[in-house]
User: Fold this.
Amino acid sequence: MNHQHHHEESPLTIAPADTRNVPLPTQSTYQNRVADYWNAEENPVNLELGKLDDLYHHHYGVGAADHSVLDERDPALRRERITAELHRLEHAQAELLAAHLGPLTPDDRVFDAGCGRGGGSVVANLRYGCHADGVTISAKQAAFAGEQARKRGIDGRVRYHHRNMLDTGFETGAYAASWNNESTMYVELDLLFAEHARLLRRGGRYVVITGCYNDTYGRASREVSLINAHYICDIHPRSEYFRAMARHRLVPVHVQDLTADTIPYWELRREAEHLVTGIEDTFLSAYRNGSFQYLLIAADRV
Assistant:
């Protein structure tokens, strides 16, 4: 059954708290499996960090880490301090991305593609006062994020939708900025950038932070393949981002290699016994052997 045309209502609906009867967005079998994964996902590394200030980020961190937290003798306090430091680094990553979206005004609308539990949209709203629409194919994430916005009293401006980011049904040209924070590895870049180009007004800004494999290394390394298997994703080569952007009227204005900046986060996370997911050493090897890069690309819609 094709549910592609069930969006007769205003495109600003919020995913209802009871998501049992919500029709699924039109998506591939693969995307249904990804949705199943995120609907079931309860990793402490995502939940424990978010509880600190109700900003739930589904991505990694950047910047120098305070390793003195590892010297804490008291076990409970050590856990707390490590958790807080990892969250600080993840929040710094979200702020770095948001800083490249501007200048935005409170009248502007922004689109958070693959919003997870919603932290990025909140960061953008706190920084610019703008309206945000976050989209995730996980009904559970959309409901959770919507509840967070209600608790903050910003649900009039920050809305989350259980939809497919490749086919949002949102208004063409209505957005001043849009982004993907570590979610591009779940989709075909051509389909994704076509939708961003459609939604962004001329001169609108698109920002992506992503892990990509390094073309100069050759093909995807063993570590990159392990990361793909761990997250059921498909990491793209760096070159494909620029080729696909060029095909869809997105012209890079700023490119930043964040690989060296993210290594301290992973070095700290692998010491956090209460938060590790088993993929930490793989990330560190991949970054260190040059097969994998952590990249920020900001592009203008022309």
Notes: The domain at 29-301 is CATH 3.40.50.150 (Rossmann fold).
